[in-house]
Amino acid sequence: MQTKISKGLVLYNRNFRENDKLVKLFTETSGKRMFFVKHASQSKLASVIQPLTVAEFILKLNDSGLSYIDDYRDVAVFKQINDDIFTLSYATYVVSLADAAIDDNQYDPHLFAFLIKTLELMDQGLDYAILTNIFEIQILERFGVQLNFHECVFCHRTGLPFDFSFKYSGLLCPEHYHQDEKRSFLNPNIPYLLDRFQSLNFDELQSISVNDNLKKDLRQFLDALYDDYVGINLKSKKFIDDLGKWGDIMKS
Ligand SMILES: [Zn+2]
């Protein structure tokens, strides 16, 4: 058993036997791992094992069996996220995507930092739908999917009103639209935004504004990409879809 101090994010917890819990943490230094918390409700850890809690943890790591949380300090919670059901449901989805994208015990400090940054920006009140889209497009690589939203797959020209072809897994420029009669017929702003999202540095984020129609189209196209290239069914994503429908009912 090895003792380590690491920043970590609680992904979720679940009941285990009568009174104990299993807690999944994404740690900065050792990837995602499951920790055993005995007598969870009476434990000093009770308040820090809630989902979306960030802290510096003192961990007892065991590569072959259960790991343990010894102690913690510097606890931070995302208060604004927890106070709003919409933001919370998007944050929960982003966290479960990160959980699905890499194996347990896999060291990935970049993904860890990117996830924390995304949650911080959601907590500051930046557009959670757009932040989620950026997260989805940048995490595709972790699922082994590499898509280029920058240039035409045939002539490699850039800066044109592109469309996306699932057949060629890439962009078509107007001169090459005809290569795929089943191309996506996207609003060219969609590939343009996805190209920006792929290379976006978070400081530029304030400069991106997307209207509601385009947001809806982005959501639809990302769903199509995920269906085709990733193929995972996350409960948290279904919840977002249902929330959207519920919102529509309220409007009509
Ligand atoms: Zn072309």
TrEMBL record:
It comes from Streptococcus saliviloxodontae. HAMAP family: RecO (MF_00201). Belongs to the RecO family. This is DNA repair protein RecO. Gene3D superfamilies: Nucleic acid-binding proteins (2.40.50.140), Recombination protein O, C-terminal domain (1.20.1440.120). Keywords: DNA damage, DNA recombination, DNA repair. Residues 1-75 form the DNA replication/recombination mediator RecO N-terminal domain. It comes from the Bacteria.
